Write a sequence for this structure.
Protein backbone atom coordinates (compact mmCIF):
# COMPACT_ATOMS: atom_id res chain seq x y z
CA UNK A 1 0.00 0.00 0.00
CA UNK A 2 1.33 3.45 -0.94
CA UNK A 3 2.27 5.63 2.04
CA UNK A 4 2.42 9.32 1.14
CA UNK A 5 2.49 10.55 4.72
CA UNK A 6 4.68 13.70 4.64
CA UNK A 7 7.77 13.37 6.82
CA UNK A 8 10.79 15.54 7.58
CA UNK A 9 14.06 13.72 6.94
CA UNK A 10 16.41 16.69 7.33
CA UNK A 11 16.14 20.01 9.17
CA UNK A 12 19.02 22.48 9.16
CA UNK A 13 19.63 26.18 9.65
CA UNK A 14 22.40 28.71 9.60
CA UNK A 15 23.53 30.43 12.76
CA UNK A 16 21.60 33.72 12.89
CA UNK A 17 23.51 36.94 12.30
CA UNK A 18 22.74 40.37 13.72
CA UNK A 19 21.74 43.27 11.51
CA UNK A 20 24.97 44.60 10.05
CA UNK A 21 26.86 41.79 11.73
CA UNK A 22 28.73 38.68 10.63
CA UNK A 23 26.76 38.25 7.39
CA UNK A 24 27.03 41.85 6.25
CA UNK A 25 29.02 40.81 3.17
CA UNK A 26 27.16 37.54 2.50
CA UNK A 27 24.41 37.48 -0.11
CA UNK A 28 21.15 35.71 0.81
CA UNK A 29 21.75 33.07 -1.86
CA UNK A 30 25.06 32.24 -0.20
CA UNK A 31 23.31 31.72 3.14
CA UNK A 32 20.94 29.22 1.53
CA UNK A 33 23.22 27.19 -0.73
CA UNK A 34 25.32 25.61 2.07
CA UNK A 35 22.15 24.28 3.71
CA UNK A 36 21.01 22.61 0.48
CA UNK A 37 24.42 21.14 -0.24
CA UNK A 38 24.69 19.85 3.33
CA UNK A 39 21.23 18.29 3.07
CA UNK A 40 22.22 16.41 -0.07
CA UNK A 41 25.48 15.27 1.50
CA UNK A 42 23.84 14.11 4.72
CA UNK A 43 21.07 12.20 2.94
CA UNK A 44 23.17 10.84 0.08
CA UNK A 45 20.68 12.28 -2.41
CA UNK A 46 21.31 14.27 -5.57
CA UNK A 47 19.35 16.84 -7.49
CA UNK A 48 17.80 14.01 -9.53
CA UNK A 49 16.00 12.87 -6.37
CA UNK A 50 14.49 16.29 -5.50
CA UNK A 51 11.28 17.47 -7.15
CA UNK A 52 11.26 21.13 -6.15
CA UNK A 53 12.68 23.87 -3.94
CA UNK A 54 10.11 25.99 -2.10
CA UNK A 55 11.85 28.95 -0.49
CA UNK A 56 10.21 31.52 1.77
CA UNK A 57 11.34 35.14 1.55
CA UNK A 58 9.51 38.22 2.81
CA UNK A 59 11.37 41.04 1.07
CA UNK A 60 11.44 39.84 -2.54
CA UNK A 61 13.41 42.69 -4.08
CA UNK A 62 17.03 43.67 -4.78
CA UNK A 63 19.24 40.64 -4.09
CA UNK A 64 16.17 38.65 -3.04
CA UNK A 65 14.32 39.34 -6.28
CA UNK A 66 14.28 37.32 -9.53
CA UNK A 67 12.74 34.23 -7.90
CA UNK A 68 15.67 33.69 -5.55
CA UNK A 69 14.69 30.02 -5.17
CA UNK A 70 15.47 29.33 -8.83
CA UNK A 71 18.77 31.21 -8.61
CA UNK A 72 19.69 29.04 -5.62
CA UNK A 73 18.92 25.79 -7.48
CA UNK A 74 21.21 26.85 -10.33
CA UNK A 75 24.07 27.79 -8.00
CA UNK A 76 23.77 24.83 -5.63
CA UNK A 77 24.40 21.12 -6.09
CA UNK A 78 20.74 20.70 -7.12
CA UNK A 79 21.40 21.79 -10.70
CA UNK A 80 19.21 22.78 -13.60
CA UNK A 81 16.71 19.92 -13.31
CA UNK A 82 15.30 21.13 -9.98
CA UNK A 83 12.78 24.00 -10.27
CA UNK A 84 12.31 26.61 -7.58
CA UNK A 85 9.53 28.84 -6.33
CA UNK A 86 9.71 31.73 -3.86
CA UNK A 87 6.88 32.07 -1.33
CA UNK A 88 5.80 35.06 0.75
CA UNK A 89 3.62 34.90 3.83
CA UNK A 90 5.82 37.39 5.67
CA UNK A 91 7.02 35.86 8.96
CA UNK A 92 5.45 32.52 8.04
CA UNK A 93 6.91 32.39 4.53
CA UNK A 94 9.01 29.29 5.13
CA UNK A 95 6.25 27.77 7.27
CA UNK A 96 4.09 28.10 4.17
CA UNK A 97 6.88 26.43 2.19
CA UNK A 98 6.70 23.45 4.54
CA UNK A 99 2.90 23.34 4.48
CA UNK A 100 2.80 23.50 0.68
CA UNK A 101 5.48 20.83 0.43
CA UNK A 102 3.61 18.56 2.84
CA UNK A 103 0.38 19.01 0.89
CA UNK A 104 2.03 18.17 -2.44
CA UNK A 105 3.66 15.07 -0.97
CA UNK A 106 0.52 13.89 0.79
CA UNK A 107 -1.60 13.90 -2.37
CA UNK A 108 1.12 12.10 -4.30
CA UNK A 109 2.09 14.93 -6.66
CA UNK A 110 5.69 15.10 -5.38
CA UNK A 111 8.00 12.73 -3.55
CA UNK A 112 10.73 15.00 -2.16
CA UNK A 113 10.70 18.77 -1.73
CA UNK A 114 13.25 21.07 -0.13
CA UNK A 115 11.29 23.61 1.91
CA UNK A 116 12.92 26.49 3.75
CA UNK A 117 13.51 30.20 3.72
CA UNK A 118 16.02 33.00 3.79
CA UNK A 119 16.21 36.67 4.71
CA UNK A 120 19.11 39.08 4.71
CA UNK A 121 17.68 42.02 6.60
CA UNK A 122 21.08 43.68 6.43
CA UNK A 123 21.42 43.59 2.66
CA UNK A 124 17.69 43.90 1.86
CA UNK A 125 16.34 46.13 4.65
CA UNK A 126 12.81 47.33 5.12
CA UNK A 127 11.87 50.28 2.88
CA UNK A 128 12.23 53.75 4.34
CA UNK A 129 9.41 54.72 6.64
CA UNK A 130 8.18 57.32 4.18
CA UNK A 131 7.96 54.81 1.32
CA UNK A 132 4.33 54.53 0.22
CA UNK A 133 3.95 51.10 -1.36
CA UNK A 134 0.73 49.95 0.32
CA UNK A 135 -2.53 50.36 -1.58
CA UNK A 136 -4.01 53.77 -0.65
CA UNK A 137 -7.39 52.25 0.26
CA UNK A 138 -5.75 50.50 3.21
CA UNK A 139 -5.29 53.92 4.81
CA UNK A 140 -9.03 54.51 4.43
CA UNK A 141 -9.70 51.44 6.57
CA UNK A 142 -6.81 51.58 9.03
CA UNK A 143 -4.46 54.13 10.51
CA UNK A 144 -1.30 52.88 8.84
CA UNK A 145 0.83 54.06 11.76
CA UNK A 146 -0.99 51.47 13.85
CA UNK A 147 -0.02 48.69 11.42
CA UNK A 148 3.71 49.07 12.04
CA UNK A 149 4.98 45.92 13.75
CA UNK A 150 6.15 47.69 16.88
CA UNK A 151 2.87 49.52 17.27
CA UNK A 152 0.92 46.26 16.99
CA UNK A 153 3.00 44.95 19.91
CA UNK A 154 2.19 48.09 21.90
CA UNK A 155 -1.51 47.63 21.12
CA UNK A 156 -1.43 44.03 22.35
CA UNK A 157 0.40 45.04 25.52
CA UNK A 158 -2.06 47.82 26.31
CA UNK A 159 -5.25 46.05 25.27
CA UNK A 160 -4.49 42.80 27.06
CA UNK A 161 -2.59 44.25 30.02
CA UNK A 162 0.87 42.80 29.50
CA UNK A 163 3.26 44.77 31.68
CA UNK A 164 6.71 46.08 30.79
CA UNK A 165 8.16 44.10 33.68
CA UNK A 166 6.68 40.82 32.43
CA UNK A 167 7.93 41.54 28.91
CA UNK A 168 11.46 42.19 30.12
CA UNK A 169 11.44 39.06 32.25
CA UNK A 170 10.31 37.02 29.26
CA UNK A 171 13.10 38.51 27.14
CA UNK A 172 15.73 37.62 29.73
CA UNK A 173 14.34 34.10 29.85
CA UNK A 174 14.73 33.83 26.08
CA UNK A 175 18.41 34.77 26.23
CA UNK A 176 19.07 32.47 29.17
CA UNK A 177 17.43 29.49 27.49
CA UNK A 178 19.14 30.13 24.16
CA UNK A 179 22.50 30.53 25.88
CA UNK A 180 22.04 27.28 27.76
CA UNK A 181 21.01 25.48 24.57
CA UNK A 182 24.09 26.82 22.81
CA UNK A 183 26.51 25.94 25.60
CA UNK A 184 25.08 22.45 26.08
CA UNK A 185 25.21 21.67 22.35
CA UNK A 186 21.44 21.36 21.92
CA UNK A 187 21.60 23.38 18.68
CA UNK A 188 24.53 21.43 17.23
CA UNK A 189 22.46 19.00 15.15
CA UNK A 190 20.59 21.79 13.38
CA UNK A 191 23.42 24.25 12.70
CA UNK A 192 25.50 24.42 9.53
CA UNK A 193 28.59 26.65 9.96
CA UNK A 194 28.79 29.40 7.33
CA UNK A 195 32.05 30.58 5.76
CA UNK A 196 31.80 34.35 5.26
CA UNK A 197 35.18 34.76 3.61
CA UNK A 198 36.37 36.52 6.75
CA UNK A 199 35.81 33.57 9.06
CA UNK A 200 33.35 30.80 9.94
CA UNK A 201 30.13 31.53 11.83
CA UNK A 202 29.25 28.63 14.13
CA UNK A 203 26.79 30.10 16.66
CA UNK A 204 23.93 32.60 16.79
CA UNK A 205 25.36 36.10 17.05
CA UNK A 206 22.54 37.82 18.92
CA UNK A 207 22.42 35.89 22.19
CA UNK A 208 23.28 38.21 25.10
CA UNK A 209 24.79 36.19 27.92
CA UNK A 210 25.00 39.13 30.29
CA UNK A 211 21.52 40.61 29.93
CA UNK A 212 19.30 41.15 32.96
CA UNK A 213 15.91 42.53 33.87
CA UNK A 214 17.67 45.56 35.36
CA UNK A 215 19.57 46.22 32.14
CA UNK A 216 16.45 45.88 29.99
CA UNK A 217 14.50 48.19 32.30
CA UNK A 218 16.87 51.02 31.36
CA UNK A 219 16.13 50.73 27.62
CA UNK A 220 13.86 53.38 26.10
CA UNK A 221 10.67 52.54 24.25
CA UNK A 222 11.00 53.18 20.53
CA UNK A 223 7.53 52.85 19.06
CA UNK A 224 5.37 54.85 21.46
CA UNK A 225 5.93 57.44 24.15
CA UNK A 226 5.26 55.91 27.56
CA UNK A 227 4.93 52.52 25.88
CA UNK A 228 6.36 49.16 26.97
CA UNK A 229 8.01 47.70 23.86
CA UNK A 230 11.78 48.17 23.59
CA UNK A 231 14.62 46.73 21.48
CA UNK A 232 15.29 44.44 24.43
CA UNK A 233 11.90 42.73 24.53
CA UNK A 234 11.39 42.54 20.76
CA UNK A 235 12.84 40.17 18.18
CA UNK A 236 16.19 41.01 16.66
CA UNK A 237 16.54 42.15 13.05
CA UNK A 238 18.62 39.34 11.63
CA UNK A 239 20.13 37.48 8.70
CA UNK A 240 19.81 33.74 8.23
CA UNK A 241 18.40 30.76 6.36
CA UNK A 242 16.67 27.48 7.18
CA UNK A 243 16.03 24.32 5.18
CA UNK A 244 14.01 21.13 5.61
CA UNK A 245 13.56 18.15 3.33
CA UNK A 246 9.96 16.93 3.21
CA UNK A 247 9.35 13.55 1.58
CA UNK A 248 6.77 10.80 1.55
CA UNK A 249 7.30 7.96 3.99
CA UNK A 250 7.68 5.61 1.02
CA UNK A 251 10.45 7.79 -0.42
CA UNK A 252 12.22 7.89 2.94
CA UNK A 253 12.03 4.11 3.26
CA UNK A 254 13.17 3.47 -0.30
CA UNK A 255 16.22 5.72 0.16
CA UNK A 256 17.10 4.55 3.65
CA UNK A 257 16.47 7.95 5.24
CA UNK A 258 15.87 8.46 8.95
CA UNK A 259 12.53 10.12 9.62
CA UNK A 260 12.84 12.96 12.13
CA UNK A 261 9.12 13.74 12.35
CA UNK A 262 5.82 13.43 10.55
CA UNK A 263 4.12 16.62 9.36
CA UNK A 264 0.62 16.58 10.80
CA UNK A 265 -2.18 19.12 10.69
CA UNK A 266 -1.51 22.73 9.87
CA UNK A 267 -3.57 25.90 9.85
CA UNK A 268 -3.52 29.59 8.95
CA UNK A 269 -5.77 32.35 10.26
CA UNK A 270 -6.45 36.05 9.86
CA UNK A 271 -6.81 38.66 12.62
CA UNK A 272 -7.11 42.42 12.99
CA UNK A 273 -3.78 43.69 11.59
CA UNK A 274 -3.62 46.25 14.40
CA UNK A 275 -3.21 43.27 16.75
CA UNK A 276 -0.96 41.27 14.45
CA UNK A 277 0.72 39.40 17.30
CA UNK A 278 -2.40 37.50 18.37
CA UNK A 279 -2.39 35.51 15.13
CA UNK A 280 -1.10 32.28 16.72
CA UNK A 281 -4.22 32.05 18.89
CA UNK A 282 -6.77 31.29 16.12
CA UNK A 283 -4.12 29.46 14.09
CA UNK A 284 -3.38 27.04 16.92
CA UNK A 285 -7.02 26.72 17.98
CA UNK A 286 -7.98 25.81 14.43
CA UNK A 287 -5.21 23.23 14.31
CA UNK A 288 -6.37 21.74 17.60
CA UNK A 289 -9.92 21.49 16.26
CA UNK A 290 -8.71 19.66 13.16
CA UNK A 291 -6.54 17.32 15.21
CA UNK A 292 -9.27 16.82 17.84
CA UNK A 293 -6.71 17.49 20.56
CA UNK A 294 -6.09 19.90 23.43
CA UNK A 295 -3.00 22.02 23.94
CA UNK A 296 -1.97 19.77 26.84
CA UNK A 297 -1.68 16.88 24.38
CA UNK A 298 1.49 18.51 23.01
CA UNK A 299 4.85 18.07 24.68
CA UNK A 300 6.46 21.19 23.18
CA UNK A 301 5.16 24.44 21.69
CA UNK A 302 7.48 26.85 19.90
CA UNK A 303 5.93 30.26 19.17
CA UNK A 304 7.93 32.88 17.33
CA UNK A 305 9.07 35.63 19.67
CA UNK A 306 8.25 38.59 17.48
CA UNK A 307 7.55 40.58 20.64
CA UNK A 308 7.40 39.56 24.28
CA UNK A 309 3.99 41.19 24.66
CA UNK A 310 2.30 38.95 22.11
CA UNK A 311 4.19 35.85 23.28
CA UNK A 312 2.90 36.32 26.80
CA UNK A 313 -0.65 37.02 25.72
CA UNK A 314 -0.74 34.05 23.31
CA UNK A 315 0.67 31.79 26.03
CA UNK A 316 -2.00 32.97 28.45
CA UNK A 317 -4.88 32.55 26.00
CA UNK A 318 -3.75 29.17 24.68
CA UNK A 319 -2.91 27.84 28.14
CA UNK A 320 0.63 26.71 27.30
CA UNK A 321 2.67 25.30 30.18
CA UNK A 322 5.84 27.36 30.65
CA UNK A 323 7.98 24.21 30.81
CA UNK A 324 6.83 23.29 27.29
CA UNK A 325 7.03 26.79 25.80
CA UNK A 326 10.02 28.01 23.77
CA UNK A 327 12.29 25.78 25.81
CA UNK A 328 15.40 26.85 23.89
CA UNK A 329 14.55 30.54 23.73
CA UNK A 330 13.44 32.22 20.56
CA UNK A 331 13.73 35.19 18.25
CA UNK A 332 14.30 37.73 21.02
CA UNK A 333 17.64 36.00 21.59
CA UNK A 334 18.31 34.02 18.42
CA UNK A 335 16.98 36.51 15.87
CA UNK A 336 14.14 36.75 13.37
CA UNK A 337 15.19 36.76 9.70
CA UNK A 338 11.67 37.04 8.37
CA UNK A 339 11.60 34.56 5.52
CA UNK A 340 13.67 31.97 7.38
CA UNK A 341 11.84 31.90 10.70
CA UNK A 342 8.85 29.77 9.68
CA UNK A 343 11.14 26.79 8.99
CA UNK A 344 13.75 27.70 11.63
CA UNK A 345 11.19 27.17 14.38
CA UNK A 346 10.20 23.67 13.18
CA UNK A 347 13.89 22.83 12.74
CA UNK A 348 14.65 23.70 16.36
CA UNK A 349 11.42 22.09 17.55
CA UNK A 350 11.94 18.80 15.72
CA UNK A 351 15.49 18.37 16.99
CA UNK A 352 14.34 19.10 20.54
CA UNK A 353 11.51 16.61 20.16
CA UNK A 354 14.09 14.02 19.17
CA UNK A 355 16.23 14.75 22.22
CA UNK A 356 13.27 14.57 24.61
CA UNK A 357 11.50 11.72 22.84
CA UNK A 358 8.50 14.05 22.72
CA UNK A 359 5.50 12.66 20.88
CA UNK A 360 3.96 15.88 19.59
CA UNK A 361 4.93 19.50 19.03
CA UNK A 362 3.51 22.68 17.51
CA UNK A 363 5.41 25.42 15.70
CA UNK A 364 3.51 28.68 15.29
CA UNK A 365 4.06 32.34 14.45
CA UNK A 366 2.26 35.63 14.02
CA UNK A 367 2.42 37.25 10.60
CA UNK A 368 2.54 40.84 9.42
CA UNK A 369 -0.74 42.53 8.44
CA UNK A 370 -2.70 40.23 10.75
CA UNK A 371 -2.22 36.52 10.20
CA UNK A 372 -1.13 33.42 12.09
CA UNK A 373 0.23 30.03 11.08
CA UNK A 374 0.72 26.75 12.93
CA UNK A 375 2.09 23.29 12.06
CA UNK A 376 1.86 20.07 14.05
CA UNK A 377 4.71 17.54 14.15
CA UNK A 378 4.74 14.04 15.59
CA UNK A 379 7.58 11.61 16.18
CA UNK A 380 7.40 8.55 13.94
Amino acid sequence: MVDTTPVVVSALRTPQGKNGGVYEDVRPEDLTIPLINETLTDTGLSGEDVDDLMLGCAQQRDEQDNNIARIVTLLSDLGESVPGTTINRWCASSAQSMMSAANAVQVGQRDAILAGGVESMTRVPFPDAEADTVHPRISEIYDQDQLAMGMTAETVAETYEVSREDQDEFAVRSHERAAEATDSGRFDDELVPIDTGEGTVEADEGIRYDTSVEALADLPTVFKDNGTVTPGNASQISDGASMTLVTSRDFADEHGLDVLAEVGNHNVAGVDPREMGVGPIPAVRGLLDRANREIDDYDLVDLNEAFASQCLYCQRELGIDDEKYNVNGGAIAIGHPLGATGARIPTTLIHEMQKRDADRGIATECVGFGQGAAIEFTLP
